[in-house]
């Protein structure tokens, strides 16, 4: 369980990841040395897993985004492990979730255009062993996209 000060630090870092330790300490009401120690502890325990820039996918040229619903024919470890290994290695796959319901997995995929999406399906997804079906929902408009947890 996180302490309140840790939650304040994480909330602020989610809003502005490039903030200095001094500014972060001021924002959360701590000394700079205490703030630095808490941030280091959050990194070392794996609560903070890394830092990155948020990029507007359309402005970066990735105009097509889709949610894929994937079901496997078999659920033996061999097929599941190969599916997970190959899917996680693909840069187009931003997220992959093992889920309940009709599909075994849901993937969020981004590509430059529909031609690239078709190639992704034909050259990768449809060639994975053990796939029963792949259904696609093309994202028409992103209403809300966030990676910030609700502290």
TrEMBL record:
HTH asnC-type domain sequence ranges: 2-63
Pfam families xref list: AsnC_trans_reg, HTH_24
Key words, A-Z: DNA-binding, Transcription, Transcription regulation
GO molecular function, a single term: sequence-specific DNA binding
Coiled coil: none
An example Gene Ontology biological process: regulation of DNA-templated transcription
PROSITE patterns for the chain: HTH_ASNC_1, HTH_ASNC_2
Gene3D superfamilies in the cross-refs: 3.30.70.920, Winged helix-like DNA-binding domain superfamily/Winged helix DNA-binding domain
InterPro entries: ArsR-like_HTH, AsnC-type_HTH_dom, Dimeric_a/b-barrel, Tscrpt_reg_AsnC-like, Tscrpt_reg_AsnC/Lrp_C, Tscrpt_reg_HTH_AsnC-type_CS, WH-like_DNA-bd_sf, WH_DNA-bd_sf
PANTHER family: LEUCINE-RESPONSIVE REGULATORY PROTEIN, TRANSCRIPTIONAL REGULATOR AZLB
UniProt-recorded name of the protein: DNA-binding Lrp family transcriptional regulator
């Amino acid at each position: 369980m996180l302490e309140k000060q840790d939650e304040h630090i994480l909330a602020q870092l989610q809003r502005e990841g490039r903030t200095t330790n001094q500014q972060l300490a001021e924002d959360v009401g701590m000394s700079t040395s205490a703030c630095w120690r808490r941030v280091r502890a959050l990194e070392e325990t794996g609560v903070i897993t890394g830092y990155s820039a948020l990029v507007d996918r359309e402005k970066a040229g990735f105009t097509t985004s889709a949610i894929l619903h994937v079901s496997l024919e078999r659920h033996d470890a061999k097929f599941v492990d190969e599916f997970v290994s190959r899917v996680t290695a693909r840069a187009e796959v931003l997220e992959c979730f093992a889920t309940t319901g009709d599909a075994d997995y849901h993937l969020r995929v981004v590509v430059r255009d529909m031609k690239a999406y078709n190639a992704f399906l034909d050259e990768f997804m449809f060639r994975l062993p053990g796939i029963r079906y792949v259904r696609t929902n093309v994202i028409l408009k992103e209403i809300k996209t966030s990676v910030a947890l609700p502290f």
